[in-house]
Design goal:
mainly alpha, 3 helices, elongated, 96 residues
């Protein structure tokens, strides 16, 4: 009577191992097939590009002077100026 129980346990163990292997293989396959599609770079207005260049100049100057503590404060206010917050965030997001 104990022999069928052992066979049953072995069967369950083998089935569990096979399901785990299939699950890992399926997960790897799904992860490989769902690579994110690179988003095309959005065009930046000339004013925002100039603003980003000014920020990079200030960062380079601060780094050169040895004041590179990671904090840069600036203000720029123009009437009717483009809101470049998203463009600045997109441009410098790789520096984190």
């Amino acid at each position: 009577m104990s022999k069928p129980i052992r066979t049953s346990r072995r069967t369950w163990l083998a089935a569990w191992a096979v399901l785990c292997a299939v699950g890992i293989a399926a997960t790897a396959g799904l992860n490989a097939s769902s690579a994110p599609v690179p988003q095309p770079e959005k065009p930046v207005s000339a004013e925002c590009a100039e603003h980003i260049a000014d920020i990079e100049t200030q960062l380079a100057k601060a780094k050169q002077e040895g004041k590179d503590d990671g904090v840069l404060a600036f203000s720029r206010s123009k009437v009717g100026a483009d809101d470049c917050g998203d463009e600045i965030r997109d441009h410098f997001s790789g520096d984190r």
